[in-house]
UniProtKB/TrEMBL annotation:
Gene3D superfamilies: alpha/beta hydrolase. GO terms for molecular function: hydrolase activity. Pfam families: Abhydrolase_6. Residues 49-273 form the AB hydrolase-1 domain. Keywords: Hydrolase. This is Alpha/beta-hydrolase. InterPro entries: AB_hydrolase_1, AB_hydrolase_fold, Carboxylesterase_BioH. The lineage of its organism: Eukaryota, Fungi, Dikarya, Ascomycota, Pezizomycotina. It comes from Glonium stellatum.
Length: 335
């Protein structure tokens, strides 16, 4: 078996993008961060979607979603955190041992503030994003809202690290099988498919997806989420304009091996309980409705909970990715 492991920072490649998407860079004190944008003069909706990837990901894992939503009139942005995509790369040791979840959260805050300022300037009024966080990026999304770093219009948690703790306390040991390299569990195409995708994903598409993965990852990012790391009540108070709509979406793949359906149900229940507390105490102005059902999805009490049949952990890249995109669009339209 061949292992795709390296200890060197990659050279920038700047691969070509679909014609509807552009690449720019956000300057920060540490280094430039890659920002992909899907915005045109034909976009008809005000609230932008802001996508953030998980471990080993990049802005490019959202290309299909960005194309889909921009074709539905929604401006879209996706950020690559440091050490991912075409953003600046710390050295292997610096990334592995000195890049914490809060370090990466500072990149996410910089990206959201940049986009919200950009969109507000275009429209001449304040604009908040809908934050879509996948996996460990979903953990970061909850962290910055819990700590009051930003305000957003709504929050979508896709296969996200749960608000109560990370998934597996042995993860840091299992991912160091090959000379203490964090990419050990993803060191072959077969492993990538097994960890990230459902059975129907063609191996050729998995091989293409592998090219989007960063060569190494922060060890302190997942370790920082082993224990409960956020306050759900604070997260909900970081979301604006509640009214009568759901403002949190919990979305998972039916065959996700990392964030299982039972975990997603527990996450949705945790958020619904906190939402009820905040409405009752009048800390947010919203209407706490009983649960209501619309097709397969479960709406109500501020939270939409939905599952993507046959999808694995990387729901936005798996074969049924468009099913998840349509569910998010439905969530967007009820805001």
């Amino acid at each position: 078996m061949a292992f795709n492991l390296t200890w060197q920072a990659p050279k920038p490649t700047f691969p070509s993008l679909p014609p509807n998407i552009t690449r720019t860079f956000i300057p920060t004190a540490s280094g430039p961060l890659e920002l992909l944008s899907a915005t045109t003069s034909t976009l008809t909706r005000k609230t932008p979607l802001f996508f953030i990837h998980g471990g080993f990901g990049s802005a490019a894992v959202w290309l299909e979603y960005m194309t889909y939503f921009s074709q539905n009139g929604i401006p879209c942005y996706a950020l690559s955190l440091r050490g991912h995509g075409n953003s600046w790369y710390p050295s292997f040791l610096r990334m592995l041992y000195w890049t914490t979840k809060r370090t990466l959260a500072s990149d996410l805050v910089a990206g959201i503030e940049h986009v919200q300022e950009l969109e507000s300037g275009k429209r001449g009024e304040p604009v908040e994003v809908i934050l879509v966080g996948h996996s460990s990026g979903g953990g970061l999304s909850q962290l910055i809202l819990s700590e009051g770093s930003v305000k957003v219009k709504a929050l979508v948690l896709m296969g996200a690290i749960p608000c109560f703790r990370s998934l597996d306390p042995w993860f840091s040991i299992r991912m160091l099988w090959h000379a203490w390299h964090p990419k050990s569990p993803l060191s072959s195409t077969k492993l990538v498919k097994n960890v990230f995708f459902g059975k129907s994903m063609p191996i050729e598409k998995v091989q293409a997806f592998e090219k989007l993965l960063s060569p190494y990852e922060s060890l302190l990012w997942p370790i920082g989420m082993f224990r409960p790391f956020v306050n759900v009540h604070n997260i909900l108070q970081g979301i604006v304009d509640w009214g009568t709509s759901d403002r949190v979406m919990v979305l998972g793949g039916e065959n996700d091996k990392l964030v299982t359906m039972s975990i997603m149900r527990r996450v949705a229940g945790t958020y619904r309980s906190a939402f009820g507390d905040l409405v009752e105490s009048k800390k947010i102005e919203a209407e706490s409705k009983g649960l209501r059902t619309q097709g397969e999805d479960n709406f109500g009490k501020g939270v939409t909970h939905a599952t993507i049949p046959s999808a694995g952990h990387h729901t936005q890249n798996d074969e049924p990715w468009v099913v998840g995109a349509k569910k998010i669009l439905s969530f967007y339209e009820q805001l």
